[in-house]
Design brief:
about 140 residues, elongated
Length: about 140
């Protein structure tokens, strides 16, 4: 069982990683697969083998770069957890926290991208232009 202090450490390390490199991160479902694989693995070498495989099959350079950075981060985390069992549990939590935070970042970025800029407010919406001239029964005049 991990202590609150250890979980706080994992969350803080994950946030640093995501805040700096989160735009290159794989999709939320893929991150959850990393968490599940870490929990199911019997030893750290098994999980690292899976991660190396994912790096090899990454579809774009951003994802490869991100996974290499994650691998470096996991090596840092390993120094804090001595046994394979506790380390793999920590990785499961690390990737679980990452999936949650990625969802948050995606939503924040989505909302930011969908806001209209003030410069665009001067142009009419296509639906309202030209204005429909209808009578009180909804028929066009």
């Amino acid at each position: 069982m991990l202590s609150g202090e250890e979980k706080t450490y994992l969350i803080n390390e994950m946030k640093k990683l995501m805040d700096e490199h989160g735009k290159k991160a794989p999709k939320n479902t893929q991150i959850r697969k990393y968490a599940a694989t870490a929990i199911k693995s019997d030893c750290k070498e098994e999980f690292l083998n899976y991660l190396h495989y994912q790096i090899g099959r990454a579809s774009n350079n951003d994802e490869k770069t991100y996974l290499m950075i994650v691998l470096d981060k996991l090596n840092e985390i390993e120094k804090r957890f001595k046994s394979d069992e506790i380390y793999l549990k920590a990785l499961g939590l690390f990737f679980g926290y990452m999936a949650r935070y990625k969802k948050y970042l995606d939503e924040i970025n989505h909302n930011r991208n969908n806001q209209k800029s003030p410069a665009n407010n001067n142009y009419p919406n296509k639906k309202n232009f030209p204005p429909n001239k209808t009578n009180e029964y909804g028929k066009r005049r």
